[in-house]
Design a protein that fits this description.
Number of helices: 9
CATH architecture: Alpha-Beta Barrel
Shape: globular
Oligomer: single chain
Radius of gyration: 18 Å
Number of domains: 1
Distance between the termini: 10 Å
Strand content: 15-25%
Number of strands: 10
Largest sheet: 8 strands, parallel, barrel
CATH topology: TIM Barrel
Amino acid sequence: MKLGVHISTSGDLIGTPARAAEMGAETIQMFASNPRGWRPTKYTPKKAQEFRAAVAAAGIDPVWFHMIYLVSFGTPDEEQREKSILATQQTLAAADLLGATGVITHMGSHKGLGFEQALERIKDSYTRALAESEKSLLIMEIAAGQGGAIGNSLEELAAQFDVMKGHPRLAVCIDTCHALSAGYELRTPEGLDDFLAKFDSLIGLDRLVVLHLNDSKNDLGAKIDRHENIGEGTIGYDGMRNIINHPKLAHISGVLEVPGMDGKSGPDKENMDRLKALRQ
């Protein structure tokens, strides 16, 4: 498994791959624009070429984008849904331009109205979002089981593939903290085998392209999304070792989204070193 970090561009897009490599990252995830706003960042072909060169020079591969936090694809609020579609179109196009493999996204909330009634809106949102780009994947991230979130289970992820008729540019990201909180036991060899078998049966393991490698402040089935540094939560070193060394996950990327040793700065070299020490 390639191991990497979610990293801020900090106003220095071209320097970002080198900063990630200094932490020991082999792959990176980043926001294409301000994650708490609707306004997209405009990338010129020249800037994109410089970024691609910086990625190659740093030995980073692949690059992943993360969608802004505001999107909601099945919401009955049509204004928010239209904004979500446009933002996703823009981010997927930016991913194509900058050479990112895909865009990882939360799916938003059905506002307590139930998942099933949101499916047709989700289908319309994804279809239109994907239509304005060519290559980059739209990657659905499993939710932590909370409230009216869309994607709280493998069944809800599978239903979105079904309604999209298995669109070739749809994929999945499993966040280890979210999955544990949603009720999936990933920490033991038996539990992880069962989870992957269920995933393969419902969706297909070829659609699993990224793991978010986060320890969890809360235990199995808590339905609370609270990330913890590697080895300091309820997944622990043994659980994370089991996950990153599973042979069926060897082909994918594992990206840190932990709080960092200072609790606020995000993924850092210490967490990267801890992960690498667990990789066999």
